[in-house]
Amino acid sequence: MSGYDIGSDKRRDMMADQKASSELRVAIAGLGSIGSKVATALDQGIEGLTLSAVAVRDPAKHQTFINALRHQPQILPIEQLGDAADIVVECAPSSQLRAIVEPAVKRGRSAVVVSVGGLLDNYDLVDLARANGGRILVPTGALIGLDAVNAAAVGTIHSVKMVTRKPIDGLKGAPFIVQNNIDIDNLREPLKLFEGSARDAAKGFPANVNVAVALSLAGIGPDRTRIQVWADPTVTRNVHRIEVEADSARFSMGIENIPSENPKTGLITALSVIALLRKQRATLCVGT
Length: 288
Hints:
- The chain is globular and about 70 Å long.
- The protein folds into two domains: 6-141 and 269-279, Rossmann fold, CATH 3.40.50; 146-264, Dihydrodipicolinate Reductase, domain 2 (2-Layer Sandwich).
- The protein has helices at residues 6-22, 35-44, 59-68, 81-84, 97-106, 124-132, 146-154, 175-179, 198-204, 210-218, 267-279; strands spanning 24-29, 49-55, 74-75, 87-90, 110-113, 135-137, 157-166, 191-197, 226-231, 238-246, 250-257.
- By secondary structure, the chain is α/β, with parallel strands linked by helices.
- Helix 5 (97-106) links the parallel strand 4 (87-90) and strand 5.
- The strands form two sheets. A six-stranded parallel β-sheet has the order 3-2-1-4-5-6, with helices on both faces. Strands 8-9-7-10-11 form a five-stranded mixed β-sheet.
- The chain is built from eleven helices and eleven strands.
- Helix 2 packs across helix 11, helix 5 (97-106) packs parallel to helix 6 (124-132) and helix 9 (198-204) packs antiparallel against helix 10 (210-218).
């Protein structure tokens, strides 16, 4: 009769410790329509990742959600997320981007930036990340085809044009609309609000054209990427059409995103962040 193998318990414990130590810790700044979905996905399980911390402006407001998670993350100030995580995911208003990303990349961490429009006014963060061994990761967001644009940019891209059409509710409060006293509440037909560079569009519509900025960073930059923004009472989805002319290919893309509970953000944006996180430790990784 063989005795109980104490060594097997030790081996299991060692394997569990090794698995935990090899997992990348992820922290999330903001638990709105995007952050809460990312937190739920991490809690349910993403290969090689674990949810370690969150930062929210009003912890009491989100306590019920946090308590419902299987594994309780720490609740920390945004500037401390980099101490508790290898990857910090920014899911907050663009005005908070620097406060979230700067401490993380200074510590050599990776920062996933959702409010990529805000990155244009804080582009020195890229240099800061480079100097400290950090990384800034921009998810595809509410767009398709960034892989193709990235590939075309290895050669020569001649032009990138984008047309964005949004329902009225998704554009309300945009600085460009407020500053120009444009009444969109009573529109009966589509109205072109803006035409210009992705950089200028990001200033006028900071919550609406993150897709255009991501497109510009993948391709020919925010000053050469051209965009139109339309308020369109005839659509119920956020509609984006892109045309790219390059020496390697000519292609066009279109996507119609279903708005989330936040009408400024498409449902697919949160899924895009989750897909990016899955790539960090995935055994099989598809796409560039």
